[in-house]
Design brief:
458 residues; alpha+beta; Phosphatase 2c, domain 1; six-stranded antiparallel sheet; 25% helix
């Protein structure tokens, strides 16, 4: 798969099936990306839907997979556009024998030639909405392609060493067994490879437009009886079950990935260009600290030690600040995501991208191991929700709302709106406030509510 499909999409051409189009011709230079809201949100072509931060949801005329609910609201004057994007669809993975090309008409008639998956994703843009727009229109194609590349192993009880079925070495089957490699591991690998390919395409497209920017990515895929949640960034997904809450993602911030970032700086010190120190100190050091023994941490340390401060330690920290104020190279608040290939530290030639990983952490939930109840749901949301609400607060809202609205056919959509409204709060004077008088979220907020009991079989 190449970026040619995306270029045709930007020109307004056919974008339903990626791949080369021999009749397309070179065409005119591609224009800037078209900003729009997700296709399943009514009035999606509206460019700047501020209007008092009105909450918008998915239209009832276009049901989402599994009857999922979706809602969003734009930020409070933080940026001109809502930089969040969302996508959801059914993914059909084609089963085929290696090296054989089947007749397309026969494939249409023979539905057994396909495996079906269901996909939902949220993208939180920074530095503009462009990277999030590209990701929302391309990541699911990457996932489909990567799954088709390994589908021969996914459909086997135990993935073979060689997709051709050959046994080159007598120890090959033993290797797979000893490494405990299962079909789910191939799906996880496909998701990781898909994120990487999507990141490469975003880099090519943003460079061609002379644009900078990136996005976080949170994707959920139901495939072959399992739910896979892949996260690169600080969005979050949780399962709200009858008896407990199951976190399905981990936030990746400069603080949570301190050791990985420091280790990279240790291996390749030239990346810091003499402007930063890789060591972590409790605060930015001053000239009077030179010669003093102060607390510090290096890449190999979970605990703390004392270091005699040298003049070189007075440089700007590689990871600076704490909590929501922590920044990677004084620039980014996230340590994983897509895009940002052209991003440099202000007034320097230091590139941020080497420290920013596009590879997601994938968590797996096996439906066969759980007794799914009617009100069990997956909540996916960008950080605008989680900045002001914790897992337990969201779970309490979910359980209470669903128990009180059992007969409403649109209850999952209404629940998504309620969650967004709760985090957005109400405007009091010049501020947005929560019910408890704490400050509400000023960020873009996007939420999926996905009912697990409504899952459709492959």
């Amino acid at each position: 798969m190449s970026a040619e499909w995306l270029r045709r999409w930007r020109r307004g051409g056919p974008a339903e099936r990626p791949g080369p189009d021999p009749a397309a011709g070179p065409g005119p230079p591609p224009p800037a990306l078209r900003y729009r809201r997700p296709k399943f949100v009514p009035g999606g072509a509206e460019e700047s839907p501020r209007g008092g931060r009105a909450v918008r949801g998915a239209g009832s005329e276009r049901p989402l997979p599994w009857g999922a609910g979706y809602a969003e609201v734009i930020n409070a004057e933080k940026s001109e556009f809502n930089e969040d994007q969302a996508a959801c669809c059914q993914i059909s993975v084609r089963r085929r024998e290696p090296g054989l090309e089947e007749d397309e008409e026969w494939l249409i008639l023979c539905s057994m030639q396909f495996l079906t998956g269901y996909y939902w994703a949220l993208f939180d843009g920074h530095g503009g909405p462009d990277a999030a727009i590209i990701a929302s229109n391309y990541l699911h194609y990457c996932i489909k392609q990567k799954l088709e590349e390994v589908v021969g192993g996914i459909t086997e009880a135990q993935p073979p060493m060689h997709l051709s079925g050959r046994c080159v070495c007598d120890s090959d089957p033993q290797f797979v067994e000893e490494k405990h490699i299962h079909a789910a591991d191939l799906v996880v690998g496909a998701l990781e490879n898909a994120f990487q390919e999507c990141d490469e395409v975003i880099g090519q497209e943003m460079e061609s437009m002379n644009q900078t920017g990136g996005c976080t990515a949170l994707a959920a895929l139901y495939f072959q009886g399992k739910l896979y949640v892949a996260n690169a960034g600080d969005s979050r997904a949780i399962l709200v079950l009858k008896d407990n809450v199951v976190p399905m993602s981990s936030e990746f911030t400069p603080e949570t990935e301190r050791q990985r970032i420091q280790h990279l700086a240790f291996l390749f010190p030239k990346l810091l260009d003499g402007e930063f120190t890789r060591f972590e100190f409790p605060r930015r050091l001053k000239g009077d600290d030179v010669g003093q023994k102060v607390l510090y941490r290096d890449y190999f340390m979970e605990g703390w030690g004392y270091k005699t401060v040298e003049k070189a330690d007075l440089k700007y920290p590689l990871v600076h600040g704490h909590g929501k104020q922590a920044r990677l190279l004084g620039t980014l608040a996230v340590s994983r995501g897509l895009g940002d290939h052209q991003l440099k530290v202000i007034d320097t030639n230091i590139e941020v991208k080497p420290f920013l990983s596009c590879i997601p952490k994938v968590n797996v939930f096996d439906f066969a191991l759980h007794d799914i109840k009617e009100d069990d749901v997956l909540i996916m949301a960008t950080d605008g929700l989680w900045d002001v609400l914790c897992n337990s607060e969201v779970a309490q809202m979910v359980r209470s709302f669903l128990a009180e609205n059992r007969t409403d056919p649109q209850r999952f959509s209404e629940l998504a709106k309620c969650l967004v409204c709760r985090a957005r709060g109400m405007k009091r004077g010049h501020q947005w406030m929560l019910d408890d008088s704490h400050e509400a979220s000023y960020d873009d907020i996007s939420v999926f509510v996905i009912p697990l009991h409504n899952k459709e079989e492959d």
